Protein 1
Amino acid sequence: MPKNAKTNRASAAYLRDALLILSLLLIGAAAFLLIRLTAKDGRYVTVEVGDEPPITVSLDTPAEISLAGGGNTLVIENGKAHVRDCTCPDKLCEKQGKISKSGESITCLPNHVHIRVNGDGGVDVGQ
Amino acid sequence: MKRKITVRELTLLSLTVAVAMMLSFIESRIPVFVPVPGVKIGLANLAALFALYRLGFRDAALVSAVRVSLSALLFGSPVSFLYSLAGAAVSLILMALLKKASFFSPIGVSVAGGVAHNFAQIAVAALMFDTAALFSYLPVLAITGTLAGTVIGIAGGLLIRKVPTFSDNEKSQ
């Protein structure tokens, strides 16, 4: 194969790489903004620990709830929920901060804890 | 189809596994600053990418399988094993298909593999938690996965070109 034909093919591949990278970044950013902008304030959080049935906690009343056998503590204050005192190594669930918008969630993979904000009503208990 | 494995191939294979293990270990020591589960650099993907291009799909699958099992044993848990296995398998299969199509350079292949890895892990987590809410992490993971995949792809592309071929019967494609 002549050398510049090979170079052309290689640069065409790099161009397609760049297009792939750009489109993934754009789609990611657009989807992120869409989710953020359309979120409404939630009134309840649904907490799932492992295979146990989910429990629903109101965001209106301050509370501290121990989860996963003391692995995490769920704190509700000022209408927001966050996690502290996690036993997991990376503390990602604590770094996920406070959540209050419908659809936002905190996940702690090591302890199998998933906390999600719901729009209204505690109707989905044990769903 | 049975093939004879030469000592050189075996050595290269073992070295690749050893490097992959080291990369996994280094990765496990790097703190993550983005508060989304699944965000990572994917250093071990460097070894998978190299193995895929230089040793072929079968050997790359072997390297990844050994790497995932050993790292779960050494610095993981049964849960992390499931996540890693799903991520590594989906990402390697997609990368092999894309490489075969020769539509992208190793950079594009690595980007697709990185994002696929993240998506597969979220899919496994969504199955385990039985909730679709986790998919709201996908946009962030698409961005971080793309950036990480680009870096790994550039490094991998260099490795694939620069690491000397020291065997006359090594499979080049």
Protein 2
Amino acid sequence: MRALIVFLKCARQQRRDPIGLGLTLGTAPAFVALYGLLFGTAGPGGGALQAFVPGLLVFAVIMVVFSAAMAVAKEVESGALRRLRLTPLRAVDYLGGVSLFQLLLGAGSVTLTLLTAALLGFDTKGVGLSAVGLGVLASAGSVGIGMMVATFSPTTSRAFLVASVAMFLLLLFSGVIFPRPDAQIFDLLPTTQLHLALSTLWSSDTGEDVGRRAAALLGLSLLYFGAGVFAFDLRHGLARRR
Amino acid sequence: MRTPVLSAEGLGRSFGARTALVEVSLAVVPGELLVLIGPNGAGKTTLLEIVAGVASFGSGRLKVSAAIGFCPQGSLHWADLSPREQLIFLGQLYGLSRRAAALRAEELLTALGLLSHGDELAATLSGGMIRRLNLASGLVHRPGLLVLDEPTAGLDPENKRFVHELLRAETKGRGTAVLLSTHDFAEAQLLADRVAIMDQGRIVACDAPAALLGRRSSRAMIELDLGGADAGLRDRARAALSDFAPSARSEGDAIVLEVMDVTSALGRVAAALESVGLSPRAIRSRARSLEDVFVELTGRRLTE
């Protein structure tokens, strides 16, 4: 119940920041539109857009890292988190509410990205909903990474910088832009798994392969989410009073 | 005899080599307002944070038998929410229904004179309003013990009045126990049922203001306004006065001394000043204040 109260507070705050909301939800769809307009959809299988969309979906998921980290860092910076520490609110309720809202943003961003692509001629091959589902799973990992970023960020500007470092890691070593390094450690990035899962999904592989990728993504996302909540709780524990 | 809602015995706390609290004992009963007064670094904030449960103590015993409302220093609010939204949000976190939280928010906004600003974003409120919002946030859940760290520091008289009235209503009307810190002796004298004077981590005296002022009640204070006399001359005058008033001290351009009898002391004062070639611009006698008691107990002024 308290998580829901926190969720509603987050929604109210986000409503007051339409530019932030627009950037979180609209950046990836805007780039999809730009790519669509610049490169068109000509060519086999939807042309360039067909190649770009999985990467841009990964980018949409990465935006959640920024959004989650900065939303929480704002509470740390303003002292609002100190106020919350004086209430019976537990960390799990606070982070549950915040995470649920961020997950919603992630789902919105992924959905809008895919819808924009589809409107411009991207062929979802009838598995658009599955792609959104994979994006939401990966968003949970992004929220967890966002919490870890917030753990080490006393201010929103610091959160932005630390999230940028995380973004480079998530983007450059996941095979989205450059070839994925051989080192298997990079398979532990949720973005790597999302990219692989989306590629599998749209390469007409068997459902079993996609299921395996989705399971890996779920496991990783839960791991990151858990680690993020644990780190944040350790640093800013709520409801730990006498 | 009412049972204390707060009872502390022999509390101690150190930060590395620095000792913040030494054997602090105090109790606060329902409806009582206890003021902690002391210089910066006396241990007031540490004690308040320990009582509020946000800091730990190293030794001693502490018992709190009521819900605590804590208002630390600094602003602890959401800039992008209105005061009403924040109070409702906090009320719900304390388990109130949305309707009950809304009613409580209305009540607090009215009591603290924030009703007309209740729906404006906190980012647009003045510093004084934010302080009042901070106080309201600590009161949302109707605590039995209110712990306030310098709630009126930096407030103008109008804002102070709102806070003072609310505190009176809470203590005398609802029976809330209040423990607050301040640097303002006049405020302490005005509000407190009891005043605890803190210095270097210890409570050096704790009693009703009248009782504290009544210590050595036969004494009176003489204030000598020395105008623009230079510091060296003032020091020589103070030394001369110390022969019969050892507590003589400088306060800005003045020297303040404590005497048994004003009339008989005036001749000696005049002689002492004459001996150093100084004539005061004005001589005033006044009643003892809590600040005089503080100086008497600690040997220094609050600002030293």
